[in-house]
Amino acid sequence: MKKIIAEAFGTFILVLFGVGSAVLMGNQIGMLGISLAFGISIVAAAYSIGAISGAHLNPAVSLGMVTAGRMGTGEFISYAIAQIAGAIIAALVVLMIASGKADYSLAENGLGQNGYGAGYLGEYNLTAALIFEVVATFVFVTVILGATQKGAPAMMAGLAIGLTLAGIHMVGINVTGVSVNPARSIGPALFAGAKALADLWVFIVAPLIGGAVAGMVFKAGLTSAEE
User: Fold this and answer.
1) CA angle 164-165-171, nearest 5°?
2) Could you read off the pLDDT of 40-50 as tens digits, one per residue?
3) pTM of full prediction above 0.85
4) Where are the domains of the chain?
């Protein structure tokens, strides 16, 4: 139960910092600031709850751990449920805060939801969105597996992972808003509705594929330090 609570809380931090920065401060800090907020959230969670649950904060990461042979299927399911719950609660908190601003409109301003196509940020098409999310998640989970493997400098893992997520956001916010995390996408989409829900499958399927493949490649020894 302690691990489940930790994963829910850690994912809450991720969505509160990341999505919150986009919704509440996006105009002031821009895409670079939002990218750093997502990265900082990972660092905060890694060093606060990492020793309890590993601070996955992401079903795609947990699935990567399964395919890498470092986690069981049952634990993956409980982690994913906790992560999604934490993301939903955080999205609700961000919505409640944003609603306190006189000119905020969920329909017009959104809730930091992911998307693609006409009307969404850079208006990249479905193919571009799928490629970005699969590749970016593969890279992210590969870094996590490598940074947390036996022999890696443990104290640096959280920083390496956080900086990687920040870098991914610097590359891809204009493409999809960057998911690489089904929980992060589910939370805001449930409240944003309409197009966000219609697009949501991309941000569940693509990250899970990227994470699963990263785990399989790691288990095969191609990205692992162990022979």
Assistant:
1) 90
2) 999 999 999 99
3) yes
4) 2-101+111-219
